[in-house]
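Throughout our pipeline, every protein is held as a single compact record rather than as scattered files. The remainder of this section carries one protein's record, kept here as part of the documentation.

===
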Amino acid sequence: MIRRILPALLAAGCIADPPVTEDDVITDLAIQPGPGGERVADGATALPVELCVVDRPGRDPTLTADLRASAGRWVATDASDGLSITVPLTRACEQRMLVPPTDVGPLTVMATVRGFAKSATEALVAARIDRVRLGITGLLSATDASMLTVTATLDVLPGGGAAAPSKGTDVALQADVEPIGAVGRLADSTLTVTTGNTVTTTFFASSSVTRVTFTATAKAMNRAPRSSDPIEIDR
């Protein structure tokens, strides 16, 4: 009975029982910001989720709540799967940590207590790119056309090395060839992060190319762009 977790509804017999709503049971549900004061879609920086229920004499000591997130994963040993967790309500407020996804946009958590449900939604912002590192594999040839592999790696802070750039982060690549007029081109000049922290493309060069200079600039949604140091490849 839900009345086991509610107060005695004033004095017995004073008024007719009003209809019970989720606000009578779940007093608060909030997805709080991470350590940096933001809710960042970096797949690593866990967000505190706080659930509070009515806490008056007569509350059932065996009461539990089911929390379900629209994305991400719970940091808890009692999680039944990545998105759901059962929380024993041993006190008025309980807190669990939720690792966010890398998708920018709304994140929703729903709490259910004895059939009464309440939800909270907050917007996740794009992860801030701290550094862009370029890696080049391959050599320029003086006799044949060349094919080089270009990889840009995006570092995100603060995530202890586990944080990833948010999905949808764009990486613009530029290749400047010498001498002027030599033929060289990137298979993709703009790449979009879909998973992980790297993007890769191919650079094609004619035998006339003696030097190529690569740069990469990452731009996450509503964040300042971050550029790599240039890398020069000589024949």
User: Anything to note?
Assistant: The first strand starts at residue 26 and ends at 31. Residues 2-126 form a domain with the Immunoglobulin-like fold (CATH 2.60.40.10). The longest helix spans residues 22-25. DSSP finds one helix and 18 strands in the chain.
